[in-house]
## 1
Amino acid sequence: MIERFLNGETTNGEERELYDFFAGADVPAHLEPYRAMFAWFDGGLVADAPRSVGASRPRHRFVKVAVTVMAVAAALVVCLMPRQPETYIEGYIMRNGVMITDPEIVSREMAASWELCERQLRCYEEMEDDVDAFMLELATFENKTLI
């Protein structure tokens, strides 16, 4: 019947029987932990609630304090942890699998690369001019031979 009471399935009459039983002197030892709870219900829930059956207040307090201490410790670790400086690398080059970030070296290498690209472009433009001149000569030659 205790289980039915805890599940809210008892009638008022059954609850009165439980209150009277636990108020009596013949409560078996294994049911003794329920005595304070039923006395509280019988008293109209006026006084402070009794401790839960099988629960101990000091353990509950210890767990609450332990969790609080761990949370504070975690917050302190996060807040006080040395942070790595944020570095912004504007440019870099890779040489033999090594990243080089020294601005002077990077700038010098970038200028050299740009110069090489410009030389290549001039070379291709000259080749294009040569091809155009060759095509013009070829067309002129073909026209002369056809006439």
Note: The mean pLDDT is 77.
## 2
Amino acid sequence: MLVELLLRHWKLDNASDIIGKIYNDSDKATIAALSTLVFAAARDSDEVAHGIVENAARELALATVAVKNSLDFSGQQVALALGGGLLLYEIDFRTKVIQAIGTCMSVGEVALVEEPALSGARSIQGDREGRLIGINLMKRSE
């Protein structure tokens, strides 16, 4: 299904044309905008799309753990501030990310951050221990 969605999106006839579109004609924002198609295909049980989503959740969890370790939060519960369109509006993805993080470390309060500067400041103020990791995953439109 994902291939068909990509072909329709770019008005292509051949699946092999997708490679050229991705590597020759597209910038990062254009590729990021395809996340809508990937999530739609994953929800429709497309195995490749499902794998992409699962891998993205795991990689984001690993990055979060790396930040935690570099900040020396060892053995302590860590609050998360989640921002960006994918984590705010793709609820299934957000759940997968939080679950993946939870398998690697103890997760405290999870705050959704729609306005990063204001919400981030409030989250930090509210976290008396000062143990907060902010994750912002943006989906950029074309």
Note: The chain has a mean pLDDT of 83.
## 3
Amino acid sequence: MTPGYRDDAPLRPGDRVGVFTVDVCTFADERSIAYRAEGPAGPVELRLYSLSNADQMAGRRFEREGLFLSRTLTVLAHPTVRRIHAAGYHANDVWTASAPPAGAALPRWCAEAPRPWHVIASMFHEVAAALAAVELTGILPHILTADDIRVGPDLHACVDLGNGFADYFIRRSQVPDSDSVSADPIPLPYPGTAWWSPEDLMGSSRSFRANHFVLCAIAWEALYGRAPFAGAHFIERVTNLLEGRIDDPPPGAGVPASLRRVLTRGLAVDPNARFPSTVVLAEAFKPGLLARLFC
């Protein structure tokens, strides 16, 4: 299981991490702890991930690739990608400094009121297009949770790649096995919990098509209000995922069959059965195209 974050807050107001000065703790869970901080260019969210119980090789990979990621995404400055200012190590923690979060996390936004399918599809078109732009820089981005996608008042999406990127390396060193997984029920759907593609779970080589799977799983939850793969506990859920047993949508969901076909293709167990590129996936999410294909 993912190691629990240390109970004692490692930073206090006035402490420094790189060029950033800590103000106040804003968030903490079993994976990370976040602070509001001030940097040379203004306020940032400083998030620390504990690596004290994780594979140190994973930490070194993150340090090398995380610094490259932050520099590249800063240059990219894509409007749908939350800007990452810096990343590095501090007292055996991995940290990222990102632009302050704006808007509501996708699960909260979906829970606030019924959302038309075309509005949700439009947001996922934006997110997929942003991932495609990042891929052109030579980086394979990682989205693992619905909380990585935020919705602004203007109904435009913003995707946070920093947290998912750090989580990816931490979780890869802590993949649960059949002997350590509890059979206790896990609530479903489970916004805020990482999605894994079949190739992630099997330890296979990861490509851009893994993001297709994760993005379509998150979109399924947003559109239908429940996860695409049922299961009362981890083993059952993963078994259904690996065998491609997608749950039927709830009756009366009002989602066009054309959009469901997009999601089903993205959720294929075989990566080669998904979309040939993230650009094609982004185009498939366009509401105008989906409306013309409504059937």
Note: Residues 56-76 form the longest helix (21 residues).
